[in-house]
Amino acid sequence: MGLRAKLILVVASTVVCLQLVWGWSVVQQKENALQTEVERRGLAVLRAVASTSAVSLANRELEHLDAVLDRYATAKGRELDVLSISIVDMEGYVVGHTDPREYGKRRVDTFVVRAIVHDSPLVEMETADDGPRMRLSMPVVS
Q1: Which of 81, 80, 86 is nearest to 68 (CA)?
Q2: Phi/psi at 15 (nearest 5 deg)?
Q3: pLDDT (tens digit, 9 = 90+) per residue, 57-98?
Q4: What angle do CA 118, 120, 124 make, to 5 degrees?
Q5: Closest-CA residue to 99 (of 124, 116, 82, 79)
Q6: Which of 3, 23, 32, 89 has the most C-beta neighbours closer than 10 Å?
Q7: What angle do CA 51, 100, 113 make, to 5 degrees?
Q8: Closest-CA residue to 85 (of 68, 97, 101, 103)
Q9: Residue 82, SS3 per DSSP
């Protein structure tokens, strides 16, 4: 292999590597922007749920929570990429959920425990079998 062929190979390899690095950085930027948008939209949904649920929770009118969460259990929730919404009390018991089978169950995983004691929104990314998921919490204050 002559010097000219080696030089062409080095230049071509360098160009390919630079394009790969640039492409990877563009994908990472897009992924970060998408994650930020999902977080923003998720927190907006939770703010809406929290504000409409506060009075019902304060008065222990749990049947009103069903009407609030029913909107997100339907196609509208799937359009927003909402998998589920839980409302838990200070002991971790589910008092409202988009899936009626979850009522009354106690949640003691670390995210729920941290969410209960936080007085501000909490965001956490987790890896599931079908891809990354974002878990969000919003305190409900009356």
Answers
A1: 86
A2: -65, -45
A3: 878 887 788 777 877 777 555 666 777 888 888 888 888 888
A4: 75
A5: 82
A6: 89
A7: 60
A8: 97
A9: coil
Please say whether the dihedral angle defined by the alpha carbons of residues 5, 9, 15 and 16, taken in this order, is positive or negative: positive
Residue 48 Cα distances to 51, 68, 125, angstroms: 5, 9, 22
How does pLDDT run across 5-27, given as a tens digit for each residue?
889 999 999 999 999 999 999 99
Residue appearing with tokens 């390919």 = 16
Contacts of 99 (CB under 8 A, 6+ apart): 73, 84
Name the DSSP letter for residue 106: B
d(CA 119, CA 133): 22
Per-residue tokens: 6: 């080696």
Give me the phi and psi of 99, to 5 degrees please: -110, 110
For 94, the enclosing helix (H) or strand (E) is strand 94-97
For the record, the structure tokens of 57 come out as: 């929770």
CA 140 – CA 14 distance, rounded (Å): 55
